[in-house]
Specification:
eight-stranded parallel beta barrel; 10 helices; TIM Barrel; 10 strands; two-stranded antiparallel sheet
């Protein structure tokens, strides 16, 4: 697909450098299941939340302090079903080493969030789940297959029904709808609400970006989200309490 038209400068810069970051020897993973982690959270009466360790971002004004491992442990203690770790270094301050340390420290699935464009990039670090952004991947079916061949669970991110069609055609069974428009970096929760009805029932569906309050958690859940990917609302302040506040949201679907 690889649609670069109108992409925000910060995102374009990341993509231009992404191809320079290849992997090493082929990685093999015995993954912790993300759908199973969501089911456990539901069984325990928690909203399934993927809490994101995000020390920097083009959409924040300053860097966040704190040890990533300690932050991840606080998120899990607060009830997170899984943890997301940025490995993109230029705009997000991430690294493969950070993901390794986090995955060794927690017992929940760990999502590698990055701008992955080629198979070789999958071999940078072992992760339970890898983010593949449908808009930017030339061979989405090939990259989905390559991830699964390594034991990784591909989370295919979309922003429109057209991209959803491409994701499903590529065999995606975990899909995330990003409420953030990567052209303007603006957030609209209505994006998830417009795309979610077209997602088959047997696909695990995540709502991503712009979810900050219990009311917004309930809104996304009522619109069909099986789980939520939340970053800033958890990172800004006490990570454990912020996570607990969202996972203990009453109501839902």
């Amino acid at each position: 697909m690889n649609d670069m038209e109108g992409v925000a400068p910060a995102v374009r810069s990341v993509l231009e450098h992404a191809g320079e970051r290849g992997g090493g020897e082929r990685v093999g993973v015995e993954p912790r299941s993300l759908p199973a982690a969501f089911e456990r959270a539901e069984h325990d009466g928690r909203v399934p939340v993927v809490a994101e360790v995000k020390l920097d971002s083009p959409t924040t004004t300053d860097e966040r302090a704190g040890d990533p491992v300690a932050l991840a442990e606080e998120m899990v203690a607060g009830g997170a079903a899984a943890v997301s770790v940025l490995t993109e270094p230029e705009q997000f301050g991430g690294s493969a080493a950070t993901l390794r340390r986090v995955r060794e420290a927690v017992d929940v699935p760990v999502l590698r969030k990055d701008f992955l464009l080629s198979e070789s990039q999958l071999d940078t670090v072992a992760a339970d789940v890898v983010l593949l952004i449908a808009r930017f991947v030339d061979d989405l079916p090939g990259l989905v297959t390559a991830a699964r061949d390594r034991g990784m669970q591909p989370l295919v991110e979309v922003h429109s029904r057209t991209e959803l069609e491409a994701a499903l055609a590529a065999g995606a069974d975990i899909v995330g709808v990003n409420n953030r428009d990567l052209t303007r970096l603006a957030v609209d929760l209505g994006t998830f609400e417009s795309v979610a009805p077209a997602v088959p029932d047997d696909v695990t569906l995540l709502a991503e970006s712009g979810i900050e309050t219990p009311a917004e958690v309930s809104r996304m859940r009522q619109a069909g989200a099986d789980g939520l990917l939340v970053g800033s609302a958890i990172m800004n302040g006490n990570s454990r309490e912020n996570t607990r506040r969202l996972v203990e949201t009453e109501g839902g679907r």
